[in-house]
Structures are given as structure tokens and as C-alpha cells.
Specification:
This protein has helices spanning 13-24, 40-44, 62-73, 160-169, 189-200, 296-314, 329-335, and strands at 2-3, 6-9, 29-32, 50-51, 60-61, 79-81, 86-92, 95-100, 105-108, 110-113, 119-122, 138-139, 152-156, 175-180, 204-208, 210-216, 223-228, 233-237, 240-243, 247-250, 261-262, 265-267, 280-282, 287-288. By secondary structure, the chain is of the alpha/beta class. The mean pLDDT is 93. The structure holds flavin-adenine dinucleotide. Flavin-adenine dinucleotide binds at residues 9-15, 32-35, 40-42, 45-46, 51, 53, 85-86, 114-120, 252-254, 284-285, 294-297, 299.
């Protein structure tokens, strides 16, 4: 069990900036995200698109905004936990207990939900009872690439994830079979060329215009059945399957936490962005109140205000004093700023 001043659900831009606002008040935080990296929508949906409405930053991209936010919170040595979803919140006297899908547990007086439009969830292949393979050899992300060492790995998909992992895992796998439903790949041209070179060397087999029909096996997939657009079917022996069919956004477990919802958003007050539960806050795209704008800058403001209430709950015996970052030696110490 990890004890912390705050747990932040979601490592999107708003969750990351909340780490900063907590950090300058001397509070530590653990951030949990279902994705394998920070940045939320900015990284997953539009990493290269220019953003023009971040104050004092005339132009940046989803990627550069995320990198700068990560740089800004570096002094606080925050723990970021990826590839896991926050599943359960339970009351524990004045604290909350948070449990993730990886069974990690946190005890905290403050939960900040910065979950955007919900967690990014993998789109699954249209195979009946597919869940029975998810505990064994069907994966939607690579958490530990050593799992694929000396294996015959079947990779489904035609985007960057499918092609990047085809190239990367070909270094350790026995064989990679890359299957895509179209003839053309959507991934970066350079990676597509690398995969095609590996095909010539016999390290990768590429099958295009094929779709999955069935995964065979009891608890583990040992054979897959695929169908070509022309009707031909093929059976292939595999040791494991990686499916990269893109992501969808789902509110998921947040809907079951007993919090007041309005059209899939969490209702908050605008004094400290607390929900109907003491110590549970919602900021960024997930929250709603009269006049709410789903913009990154609104989420930054919401994070600053909710951090003050988090301080009061995490340090009930200390007096909260408002300070500017320019002139507070405490804040400078926390940021590692050296004053002459
Ligand atoms: P998100 O960025 O959605 O991040 C939420 C994170 O929480 C996700 O990573 C998700 O996986 C995670 N999560 C959710 N539930 C759970 C759970 N139970 N457990 C673990 N993790 C969970 N805004 C602007 O201000 N300017 C723009 O120019 C702009 N352009 C945009 C262009 C596009 C194409 C899109 C789609 C959006 C744009 N936006 C823009 C909106 C902006 O991206 C969002 O307002 C912003 O991303 C919201 O940030 P957030 O941190 O609240 O949520």
C-alpha cells in the first residue's frame, strides 16, 4: 500500500499540471493512466497538430506540450504508473483507498480525477469470448517485450504501433507474422520500409487484406484463422497475438464511483472543483459546471484551485499561505531553483 498526498487519475495535460500545482505546495502525488505514456488526448489523438491557445506559448504541438509539462514537474520526482486503469475507490475514514487494474493500492486524502473523456481502451478483434485469452497470450500493448522472446508472434494492425512493434520484436522473436486488413499501411513510411526489408530477410511474414475469423485454443491461443478479402482462409500456428486495432474512449469504472454525473461528466463546484464526495476532485475535460469550456487552459486553472483544497486536507495542522512562485523561497527550494 502506497501512502500519498494525492492520487491523480489520468496523465493528460491537466493531470500533469495538477502535479505541478500540488508540488509547489509541497504535496506529492502518484499519477495513474491506462495508456503507456503521458499526454492523454494530446499524445494519443493529435501529437503533431499545432495548438495555438496555450497562454504565452504562441504555438506548440500535443507532443511538445506534453514534453514541457513533464519537464515542469521533473523537480517533484512524481511516480507515473502507466498501463493500468483506476478501478475502485473506497472510503477509509478521512482517506480514500484507490485500487488499479494491476492491483496496486494507494491510500490518500485526495483523489483528483483528470480522466478526460474516460480511459483510452483498446478496440478488440471481433472474436467471440475473446476475454478468455486476455490473461494468457492475447495482448493489446507491450508491457514487457521479453515475453515475446523466441516466440512466433502474430501482430494485427496497420498503424504505427503494429509496425513499430513488428520491427522492434523481430530482434528477439522467433518469427513475426504481421496481418493487416488493407493493402496499404498507415504507419510512418520509414517503419513500413524497415518491416518490408525484414520480410525479405525472412524475419517477418506480412499478410495483407486479411481479417481475423477465429482464435483457437482452450485458455491460450495456439492457432488463428484469418480470411482474405477474396474469401480464402488460412490457419496459422502462433505462440501469442498482439492486436493493435486502435483505441476508443470509455468512461469505464468512473461511472460506478457514486459521483454525481451529468451527461458523462462529473459535476463539481467552482470553488475547489470538488465532486459530491469530500476529497474527490474532478478537473479538465471530465468535469462540468455552468460555463465549462473543454480547453486545456481551463483545466490548468481548475488544477490550481483544487490543489489548495488538497493542501488543507493533506496538511490539516498547517496554515495555507498563498505565495507567488517568483518570490517564495519555499517554492524555489521545491523547484531546485538556486538563488544568488
Ligand atoms: P485527457 O487529455 O483526455 O487525458 C485523460 C487521461 O486519463 C487519458 O490519458 C486516459 O487514458 C486517462 N484515464 C481516464 N480514465 C482513467 C482511469 N479510470 N484509469 C486510468 N487512466 C484513466 N484543447 C485546447 O485547449 N486547444 C486546442 O487547440 C485543442 N485541440 C484539440 C484537437 C483535437 C483533435 C482534440 C481531440 C482535442 C483538442 N483539444 C484542444 C482538447 C484538449 O485536448 C483537451 O481539452 C485536453 O486533452 C483535456 O485534458 P485532460 O487532461 O482533462 O484529459
Amino acid at each position: 500500500m502506497i501512502k500519498t498526498d494525492a492520487v491523480i487519475v489520468g496523465a493528460g495535460p491537466v493531470g500533469l499540471f495538477a502535479v505541478f500545482e500540488l508540488g509547489i505546495l509541497g504535496l506529492n502525488a502518484h499519477v495513474i493512466d491506462n495508456l503507456d505514456k503521458a499526454g492523454g488526448q494530446c499524445i494519443e489523438l493529435y501529437p503533431d497538430k499545432p495548438i495555438y491557445d496555450i497562454p504565452a506559448v504562441p504555438e506548440c504541438t500535443g507532443e511538445s506540450l506534453t514534453q514541457n509539462l513533464l519537464k515542469q514537474i521533473k523537480p517533484f520526482k512524481t511516480n507515473l504508473h502507466f498501463n493500468q486503469r483506476v478501478e475502485k475507490l473506497e472510503k477509509d475514514n478521512d482517506n480514500w483507498l484507490v485500487t488499479t487494474s494491476d492491483k496496486h493500492k494507494f491510500q490518500t486524502p485526495n483523489i483528483i480525477i483528470a480522466a478526460g473523456v474516460g480511459s483510452f481502451e483498446p478496440r478488440k478483434p471481433p472474436i467471440k469470448n475473446i476475454e478468455r485469452f486476455e490473461k494468457t497470450n492475447l495482448f493489446y500493448a507491450v508491457k514487457d517485450k521479453n515475453k515475446f522472446k523466441d516466440q512466433t508472434v502474430c501482430i494485427f494492425g496497420g498503424g504505427d504501433s503494429a509496425l513499430d512493434w513488428t520491427v522492434e520484436l523481430s530482434k528477439i522473436a522467433k518469427k513475426i507474422i504481421l496481418i493487416h486488413r488493407r493493402d496499404e499501411f498507415r504507419a510512418a513510411q520509414h517503419t513500413v520500409s524497415l518491416a518490408k526489408d525484414l520480410e525479405k530477410k525472412g524475419k517477418v511474414e506480412i499478410l495483407t487484406s486479411y481479417q481475423p475469423l477465429d482464435f483457437k485454443g482452450d485458455k491460450e491461443i495456439n492457432q488463428i484463422l484469418i480470411k482474405h478479402d477474396n474469401g480464402d482462409q488460412k490457419e496459422l500456428k502462433v505462440d501469442c497475438v498482439l492486436a493493435f486495432f486502435g483505441l476508443k474512449m470509455e468512461l469505464g469504472p468512473i461511472a460506478n464511483w457514486g459521483l454525481d454525473l451529468e451527461s458523462k461528466s462529473l459535476k463539481v463546484n467552482t470553488i475547489n472543483f470538488e465532486t459530491n464526495e469530500k476529497g474527490i476532485f474532478a478537473i479538465g475535460d471530465i468535469c462540468t459546471y455552468p460555463g465549462k469550456l473543454k480547453l486545456i487552459l481551463s483545466g490548468f486553472h481548475e488544477g490550481a484551485l483544487c490543489a489548495q483544497e488538497c493542501f488543507k486536507r493533506a496538511r490539516p495542522d498547517e496554515k495555507y499561505v498563498f505565495r507567488f512562485t517568483t518570490s517564495s523561497s519555499d517554492i524555489h527550494k521545491r523547484l531546485g531553483v538556486k538563488n544568488d
